[in-house]
Amino acid sequence: MRTKLSAIFDALLPVIATLAALIVGAVMLLLLKVNPIEAYAALWDGAFGSANAFAETLVKATPLLLVGLGICISFRGDVINIGGEGQMIIGGIFATWIGLAFTNLPGWLAITLGLFAGFLGGAIWGGIPGYLKAYFNVNEILSTVMMNAIAVQIMNFMLRGPMIDPVQAQKASRIPQTARLIEAYRLARWAPTRLHLGALIAVVLAILVYILLWRTTLGYRIRAVGLNPQASRYAGIKVPRYVVMALLLSGAFSGLAGAVQVYGVNFRMITDGSASGFTGNAGFNGIVAALFGQLHPIWSIPAAILFGALLVGANQMQRVVQVPSALITALNGLVVVFVVSSEFLRRRRQRQRLARANLDDSSPPDNASQPVEASS
Amino acid sequence: MISELFTVTVLIGILSSGVRLATPYLYAAIGETFGQRSGVLNLGVEGQMLLGAFAAFYVAMNTGNLWLGVLAAMFVGALMGLAMAFVTVNLQAQQGISGIGFYLFGLGMSDLLFQKLMGTVHTVEGFPKIAIPILSKIPGLGEILFDQNILVYGAFLLVLLAGFVLNKTNLGLMIRSVGENPDAADSLGVSVARVRYFTIILGGTLSGVAGASLSIALLNVFQQNMTSGLGFIAVALVYFGAWRPLGVLGGALLFSLVNSLQLWIQVLGIPIPSEIAVMMPYVLTILVLVVTVSRVRSPSALTKPFGREE
Question: What is the ipTM, given to two decimal places?
Fold first, then answer.
């Protein structure tokens, strides 16, 4: 009974953390002389108020879920992938290139190839920092941040140069965007909304990632390396290989997210010269969603929908009560801080449980279950 | 056209703007060095800088006093540091991820305040150049090193001061011991928590100054996301400089000089695509990390929360 209650409490922690962030947000709204109830009502209305609103929420949730699935893999392998933005961009470029270079393929084939190219592009962009971490001890947080900056420049170069929309190339404005994909190459939509097949693909992949992590050797090894690299090494696991795999797969899912944005939402690659001009910050917000889903692929689905809702609702809030949608970015940050902080409560409860178990049980403590201190 | 790069005037221009561009990196990276030497990785530098940059600009614009702006930036940075310290020391939260949280908070918050309080881009008269008597008259070198604004001088003095504090003082010894072996430090009566609070708040304060150096000394505007990754690079420079202030200085100068070269290449219209030029410093950073990091050992307790076994 007690353990069941604790399990519920643990599962509720992220929800409590979000509520706390929303309360802080309400205080900020009050300081801005805005009625928080009115603001949050607008936010809710914008995200769930109509079928179309909910469809938009799911459209925004899709890249968050895809990036988040990758984050589940890498963070479980104790690899911190901050490179989602860059991986989305490279995935987007690869996918767009396929769609524009081959114009007489059957639609299903072009889409499959395009999405696969995005997956591959992201895998390359994640694999490089993975390789550098595994074999050169380069901190992946730093290298993925650098790779983001490099990807932005590659995108700007491609979209202003070799891949520029021929129409824009004629104009003085030269907006950095590619030509549009032909009709046959676009992911099916649930008309009249913008909800597209990519959302379904993401949900199916969430199940596959769950199977990967808990039902395959590869997933088991990635998690083992993440929990305890030293013990894994003693157990004969080639640790560097699984570090590379964790980042490579993580990048691949972000790359796919980029490809899905192209084939499902914009039908072209377009930017304002910054990373978020293409990604809409999904590379960072996907981390938030995955953390919120406790790095579990299935739980990441509702988490992604929640944050998709916040992003869509923020626009409505901006229209109705004139609060810049940047408020939601700030609140997302607070959610992350609160969620990782609330881990403290979970750990404390765990310690208390262990202490109680040791008191109740007179048998010697089981050393095998004690975490071994990993040295660097 | 390449030969145009090698005229004396251009070279001096590249070097002098390189020195100036190093300022924000130096403040932020030296602050981060203190944190990391005590075992705390603060990835929220970028967010602290953005809020600092906004606070400095907003206060300077409204009071006309640049120093009040710097103070405001320090205060805001210190507050962010205090929050970070509570979360990582008391609550023992995962440092890398909470840093990302603080980054997102600073990114959104500075944008929100900018849109609500200013609305459009304004400019201020930033810190003026101060030519140091005699030294600034040295041909070449004078213009590069001794004809800069006060925050540039401050950054270089800070490097020397940080090196002295970390290596030659009792405080520095405490910081290093907490970062290398917190259990031993604790058993010798050093309060691990207090030392880490100090270094994280100091780091936040300096990140605030780094932001101020951008918004009221270097660029003299505030815009959304104006740091565009600069804070993350500052964190990278700490690794790059092998956790030593002088190493950080070397990294910051290398990075900013390549950046300055890149700007001049564009100014002179040398036919290298600007995107390739902008990319160079990042590629270079990765390459240098590959070459250096594998040979240097990080502080042993870096990213590891400390809690006494009960």
Answer: 0.88
